[in-house]
Amino acid sequence: MTDPRPLVLHLVDDATPGGVTRVLDQIRSCTLMARDARHEVRPVSRKGGLPRVQADLIVSHLAISWRSLPALISFRARHSGTPLVHVEHSYTEGFTALNVPFKARFFTLLRTAYALFDRVVAVSAPQANWLARRGLVRSDVLQVITPVVDLSAFRALNTPQGPALRIGAIGRLHRQKGFDTLIDAVRSLPQREISLHIHGTGEEEAALKARAAGDPRIVFHGHSEDPAAVMSHLDIVAMPSRWEAFGLVALEARAAGRPIVASGVDGLSQSAGPQALIVSTPSAEAWAAALSARLKRGSTPGAMDRCATAEREFAAAWGQLLADLAAPQELHIAA
Amino acid sequence: MPYASIVVPTFNSSATLGETLDALRTQNFRDLEIIVVNDGSTDDSVEIAQRHAARDGRVRIVEQPNRGLAGARNSGIAAARGAVIGFCDADDRWMPGKLAAHVAHLRAAPLVGLSYSGSVLIDQAGKPFGHAQKPRLRDVTTAHVFKRNPVGNGSAPVFRREALEAIAWRPAFETQRDWVFDETFRQSEDIECWLRFGLSTDWLIEGVPGLLTEYRVNATGLSARTEAQLASWERMVSKLRPRDPAFFARHEGAARAYQLRYLARRAISSGDADTACTYIDRALSSSRLPLREEPLRTGTTWLASRLLRHLGDAPIRAVRNMRAARG
Question: Which residues, if any, are the signal sequence (chain B) (predicted)?
Fold first, then answer.
């Protein structure tokens, strides 16, 4: 007997243990999502072409570049009858400002690539606004689905009690995350009992360790396979990112009832939630002042909903997207 | 609602404000407002502005206690109603077609947030003396802004309103209006703004052809202030570095070399040989890039500083007189 559910195939070219991989794990394992469709994940290579596949809906989680564009065009041509969705996990206004010397050319690439898809999914409202403002995606094919991971282990954590002392920074050790500014800020704080816990690995590890050298309050923990356990040891989560399409760590911190201090760039202004303390000036002085203020208030974040409906909303949004695209005929008649 | 706003900060500029306002009122593009921000002048600047306002309803006056150039521009931005906002300091002039050129540019190029043009340098008497700023106009990267400041001066740019709003912020102690220019700077406030714009937004910075601004330079007392200018430039670098340390690690040495070369050239202009030699030597020890990117200009600066030291300023004066006679 064949499975009556439609097949949704997710193409991914990023195997690093970052946000994309974790969101795909959620898509693959979420029982709510499994009611509407079979979700399969197909890793593909960044080099060379894309395979011919059979599915009712194909979702690209691929990184768009001039090099990958021919493969994408060919893929679109070979799957002309299948609805194609792209989820934009990477690019934002902040990314463009700091990584793209020739912006007009980059916008041409994105406009060309996005035009191949029936739907482009932004991972945050600020990112969607940017895509629309720059004319990169037509408004009728653009929608927002904010990503999630399984938050149950985070919701199960007790809210930290007592004075706030342990600041956490979680993520790739890359200039994107702005941990250099955070280290400078913590170094400048006089309180001896506080500590900064940096979780993650990456190319900036040596430079960041050198920056923190001599300050025993700053501890590097490497990458952890258990993010909820990491969160359980923190009182405050700091996110000084220079660009951030969404920022899953913020969602996890909220689910765990941990207060957030964040830069507020791009999607972070949404993911960090309305109670986050936003540091709009990227300087060690501004961060030191914000951390001081936040530490004084203690670790209680106030009334928090712990993102109780995040997974359900995510599943519902994908279910709706599937209904919109994979059954266009019925929709047409209904309209 | 006027389509364009031009902000004219004025502080004791009665000698030149009249010609600035004449130049702005006679722009070919007429759908504009001129916002004169009187930054606590003690001369009759405000009376001059009032006379223009009486004759031309497009001229408005905003009063404030002295806050400096950046503060005056910020007050002007807060009062501006236009879809595009330009700046013209009260001792500079715009050519009649300048605003029209920028309006057309911003309309045709929706990705451009900051449109600028080249400038003719004028002396205290308002006469061109044979120098111009002829910057690169297209393919301008943030690195290029940092190293070569193609925008050139504070009377050159015309911004799209959304682009200015993208870099506005409200310091905690500020109660009245947002900042776009950083009022803690008394020098380098221009380049600080353009560079921050490049580092924090995805708007394009692009120029239009022509020397459309007449930019007045003060020939006296130049070299006396160069150290202060360098210090404010360094403060700008320290302020903006956390926005992208990798960018600064890559371009800072070359940008500093260009800045020092610029100061050397100013010292040469004012006949200060020792200062000129010191700056050009410091420039070349900071980075060799100006030699590779602009060998002629860098080489002549070095040569002129040496000639000035050994021969005095007679040869340079002679060249200048020849150019003036030709021009």
Answer: none
Domain boundaries, chain B: 4-216, 223-326
Residue B314 has pLDDT above 80, yes or no: no
The domains found in chain A, sorted by start residue, are: 7-150+310-334 (3.40.50.2000), 152-296 (3.40.50.2000)
The distance of B198 to chain A (nearest Cα, Å) reads: 7
- Interface ipTM: 0.90
* Residue % of chain A over a pLDDT of 90: 85
| B119-152 pLDDT tens trace | 999 999 999 988 899 999 999 999 999 999 999 9
Going by the DSSP 8-state scheme, the letter that residue B181 receives in this structure is S
Cα A289 to chain centroid, rounded: 27
Contact flag A102-B242 (C-beta cutoff 8 Å): no
User: Residues of A at the B interface (Cβ-Cβ below 8 Å)?
Assistant: 93-94, 96-98, 100-104, 107, 130, 134-135, 175, 178, 180-181, 184, 242, 280-284
CATH class of this structure's domain B4-216 = alpha beta
Residue B327 binned pLDDT confidence (cut-offs 50, 70, 90): very low
Measured distance CA(A262)–CA(A94) in Å, rounded:
14
CB atoms within 10 A of CB A76: 19
pLDDT of B220 above 70: no
Which among B141, B201, B242 is the nearest to A283, CB-wise? B242
